[in-house]
Specification:
Elements: E1 4-7, E2 10-13, E3 18-24, E4 33-38, E5 45-50, E6 56-58, E7 66-71, E8 76-81, E9 90-98, E10 102-105, E11 109-114
């Protein structure tokens, strides 16, 4: 079993920044890892993903504002979120070992952006 521990969420005004971190309990260097989010009343969506080969993808709504990175030795991924918008308000989830769906999920962390 793998545990994913998220941190770095909170409340910020629109235009501000937050950095999310996710630490895995064991080596996941061969796994794709990602950040998902779920806003109230909406389905969970993929925000950004980093693959074992280092390739990265983003959902269109965060391109140019968010940046995912990975520290393989520390089994950690980050999500730097800049120029946050009120529509970014959601619970953000770290996910790992993604095939059709992630095998592992973090518990989620709240990000609230106010106008």
């Amino acid at each position: 079993q793998v545990q994913l521990d998220e941190s770095g969420g909170g409340s910020v005004q629109a235009g501000g920044s937050l950095r999310l971190s996710c630490v895995a309990s064991r080596d996941l260097s061969r796994c794709a890892m990602a950040w998902y989010r779920q806003a109230p009343g909406k389905e969970r969506e993929s925000v950004s993903r980093v693959n074992p080969d280092g390739s990265i993808s983003y959902t269109d709504s965060v391109k140019g504002r968010f940046a995912i990175s990975r520290h393989i030795r520390n089994n950690t991924i980050f999500l730097q979120m800049n120029n946050l918008k009120t529509e970014d308000t959601a619970v953000y989830y770290c996910a790992a070992c993604i095939y059709t769906t992630p095998n592992y999920w973090g518990q989620g962390i709240q990000v609230t952006v106010s106008s």
